[in-house]
Amino acid sequence: MKIDILTLFPEMFKGFLEESIIKRAIQSSKVEINLHNIRDFSKDPHKKVDDYGFGGGAGMVLMPEPVYDAIESVRTENSKVILLTPQGVPYQQSHAYELARSSHLILVCGHYEGFDERIRSFVDEEISIGDYVLTGGEIPSMVITDSVVRLLPGVIEEESHIQDSFHNQLLDYPVYTKPVDFRGMKVPDVLLSGHHANIQKWRYEEQLKKTKERRPDLLEKR
Ligand code: ADE
What we know:
The chain is an alpha/beta fold. The chain folds into 2 domains: 2-158, Alpha/beta knot; 163-221, Orthogonal Bundle (Trp Operon Repressor, Chain A), CATH 1.10.1270.20. The protein is built from 9 helices and 10 strands. It has helices at residues 14-17, 20-27, 64-74, 93-99, 138-149, 158-163, 189-192, 196-214, 216-221, and strands at 2-7, 32-37, 50-52, 60-62, 79-90, 104-109, 114-115, 125-128, 181-182, 185-186. The strands form 3 sheets. Strands 2-1-6-5-8 form a 5-stranded parallel β-sheet, with helices on both faces. The longest helix has 19 residues, at 196-214. The protein is elongated. It binds adenine. Adenine is lined by residues 84-86, 128-130, 132-134, 136-137, 140.
């Protein structure tokens, strides 16, 4: 998979791309991730990419031309162009599975007050990562990238996906490690029993219990 990220702040991605699982996925060529500065596509002598909004109002608005040119510089027949915006479709794990099947994602990060509305006409999808407003689309595009890359074959153990929260619309079961007794809180006996079928059964029951308590809406969707 290839992911092209269009942003005004490529430096924000440094730590994200250079640590842990994402770093390893890049090194082992499971994914190619390229950063592109939208400012490089400005035709203005001062590399301006935003201006005041017509009709007044606070904040600057991202102009359509540099964004359009940045998208066109990387777009191919198989690209899916995604705009990160609080007005987009709320992002969910099922969406991550769907995006993980694409061969090329182009993530467009806005900043400031918003995008010129005409930018919407040349993207395929708009995604929101939740009902709150961030200063830009950079963190949302890291969220999308992280959730998609971990699903690519060979990036993490296949079994981990099956136990993920939201797989089958259930929250994850509890996990424990050493010590067996921590300040009087003991690891459930069943996990120490070595009885695989009982462990599976216990985990499934715990998933149902936790989901019922915390996210009954997920059970309704099942
Ligand atoms: N840009 C600013 N806030 C956002 C959000 N919640 N989701 C996606 N993009 C955003």
